[in-house]
Hints:
By secondary structure, this protein is α+β, with helices and mostly antiparallel strands.
Amino acid sequence: xxxxxxxxxxxxxxxxxxILQIVMVVVLLLHHQTCDATSSNKQTYCPxxxxxxxxxxxxxxxxxxDPTTCGxxxxxxxxENNITxxxxxxxxxxxxxxxxxxxxxxxxxxxxxEGDCSSIPRYYLNGNNFTYSYSISTDRYNEDPYQIDxxxxxxxxxxxxxxxxxxxxxxxxxxxxxxxxxxxxxxxxAFVGGYFYVGKLKDYCxxxxxxxxxxxAFPNISVSVSVRDGVPDRQLSYQKIHEMLLYGFEISxxxxxxxxxxxxxxxxxLSEITRGDFECHQSKYIDKCSYPFDPFGPERxxxxxxxxxxxxxxxxxxxxxxxxxxxxxxxxxxxxxKQELSISKTGLEIGKIIGRYLLPPCIVRYVTGLLVFCVLMxxxxxxxxxxxxxxxxxxxxxxxxxxxxxxxxxxxxxxxxFRDKLGEGGFGAVYKGKLRSGQLVAIKMLGKxxxxxxxxxxxxxxIGRIHHTNVVRLIGFCFERSKRxxxxxxxxxxxxxxxxxxxxxxxxxxxxxxxxxSLGVARGISYLHQGCDMQILHFDIKPHNIxxxxxxxxxxxxxxxxxxxxxxxxxVTLTAARGTIGYMAPxxxxxxxxxxxxxxDVYSFGMLLMEMASKRRNLNPHADRSSQLFFPFWIYxxxxxxxxxxxxxxxxxxxxxxxxxxxTALWCIQLKPNDRPPMxxxxxMLEGNIENIEMPPKPSLYPNEVIQKxxxxxxxxxxxxxxxxxxxxxxxxxx
Length: 735
């Protein structure tokens, strides 16, 4: 009998039971993970909602009355009078259809009425308001809820108001057929935006409104539209334009659908086969060989092509090395086909030719060119710095200035080697110093200078000429090559910036103090505009540039962006916008509302005055309502409706001054420069009785808002005309 380990009858069942138990545990764990993964990717089930003709409203869309767990809040719809509405930007649009397969929603402007050719869009909207997504792919990091889908496209419909008829351009589609009792002074045309550019705009016409329509609207028109040489078919009429607007336009939520489907994957593709499903990838560099739209066909073997390419590139590089070193050798051995071996030899020969005949002269030329380039750059930089110094020296020699010129060594002694730093900004750092007489000063060390030392010349040349109670005094300056400094009188109470909407200051200014400070600022700006031989435009009025002395007397400072102009020049020319966002006048951005003048400083002062009166910032990104986002809008509504403005610890006398400041500020921030008062009139309003200040028009942020106001007025006129059987179209507004 052989000796060995004996197996009892019960041993095998016990081991089998143990194995089964382990398998069950693993299966349960895998099932639990699968369930977790599945549940994490699925949306919470909610029954579809409906409103009017839209019978299925489901994820990501939701109605306002749906449970909070249903749908995405960014895609909330409303049901008004049994009509589904979508709030988009500042308007509400009719929802005509929702295509959950193509991820598109079709909208129509509520101003367009079926059967009424004279109806016009209510809202200003064009394709530039949206990002663009293509038909087969979309980036999951796109944060915009809606995009323009490249599969469907769009057309901009542009309304133009002309002072006289357009007779020489058939692309201007006359709206006269849709109007009754035609007014000969009003000539309104529509233009298909796909063919519109600046050169198409007549000198006597201006854009009144832009609306959107889908390219899919063209097949629904009774006479098809064709394009010949970039010009629309002559049979296109305004009635057909109205049909296009009545059809509406499509926008897509494909980006959100991609994110919901693919989760943390970096990229996803809309399948060309199933249409509606996404294929998820970890990288946007996707192997397209397996997709039906691949130009090389679905049977292409990408790995095989990649192998050939790698062999070819590797042999070219090896051949370059051998050719450069004049090495003679055989090709590298590959376990590949005859075709791939041929590719290898060809690459090696090409590399040898490059390395032996082409590479050496290229290296010599490259090294020589690099040396010449470095020498040239060093020469240019040196000349540039020398030109800056020469310009400043010429300026200092040709100008008689009151401020004292200090050496850099004296500046270091005043600041005790720049020990006491008061602050720092884009211009450089500010240090506290002391003159030999014991007077405290603030020394601003200028950093990198703009072209030709212009910031230094501006500051010294502007503030060095004037002396006024409400303008900070320049005591001296320093210029030694790259070392430039400005020496100002010291302002113990710092800048006004820290007293506006700040809860950490030990000193809190009263409303009467703010009122007196605002008067001082107004007098200082008025002096700059009218009190000197040359008018001085500051271009950077803001709280940070208003300094307060020991008695809280305000002084205008920082003239780095200032410009000097003759008093007889009303409109000035700037090569670029200048100032601080939030205080810059709109004409610095939009040239069609007026020229740049001293009224730009008036606008900046108005924004500053609004903040001083309220002790808060004008922009509030955390406001609950859109009307409170821009504080001047809210103040205007309160004053028009004669509602009380709630202020902490304010007397009746202080409230009168605050209201004067608010009304004056609203006049100063009017969109058009011609509507703003000059600074001497601003001072009269602040010093006079509040009853003498008329209520200004509501301020506007952008020219589009002025267009929207014109459209609302025109729409009201149209409604009143319809009541007496007379329909008029867009009336021309004053520029």
